[in-house]
Amino acid sequence: MYCLQWLIPVLLMPKPLNPAFIYNHAMFIVLYLTSFFLVRKPCTICSLVFLAAVFLICYNCVGNCILWHCSSDECEGADCETTCGSA
């Protein structure tokens, strides 16, 4: 489990506040993880634990996903009243 010490901080890295930099941040993370897996070759257990953590964080979409932006508002767009219903 030595290799997890290099992967867990990736989950804790904050996303940029400016929405223009979210794509750059996602590309940095993808390139970092790709190079990490190619160079360091972590064990299978560490890889599975990390991928499960990323999946669970991105699946619940609370805004902490490192790969894409999860909107906190479920009702967006011009059809807000018809899709979400008027209150």
Automatic annotation (TrEMBL):
The chain crosses the membrane at residues 20-39, 46-69. Keywords: Membrane, Transmembrane, Transmembrane helix. It holds the Pfam family BC10. GO terms for cellular component: membrane. It is found in: Membrane. SMART domains: BC10. It comes from Lymnaea stagnalis (Great pond snail). Acts as a tumor suppressor; induces growth arrest at G(1)/S checkpoint and apoptosis via RB1-dependent and p53/TP53- and NF-kappa-B-independent mechanisms. Modulates expression of genes involved in the regulation of proliferation, cell cycle and apoptosis. The keyword DNA-binding does not apply. The lineage of its organism: Eukaryota, Metazoa, Spiralia, Lophotrochozoa, Mollusca. Belongs to the BLCAP family. This is Bladder cancer-associated protein.
